[in-house]
Amino acid sequence: MSGYLFRNYGSRYISILSRVWSGNSQMMKNSEAALRKTLEAKFPLAKNIVVSDISGGCGSMYEIFVETTEFKGLSTVKQHRLITETLKTEIKDMHGLRIHTSIAE
Fold this sequence. Notes:
Helices cover 38% and strands 27% of the residues.
């Protein structure tokens, strides 16, 4: 088998094209707009919500920034936990997530 189209993963070969195709289905599940919409519903008072796909477009890793007064009185860990709980279904399909939060003035 050609090393260009197939890769050896343990005892089996997987087509590079099938890996790309399955990656695109993940992108459709988790888009920047869909994640932002979910966060906007959870944090209606947010001054700023930014969701960026930092995986090169495949939808496997995101960077999220949420600035809201709803974080007032909460530790950073609790702020981040609110975000991960809000996106718990979406996170299952991700490789990684960077979260940044801020308390709006």
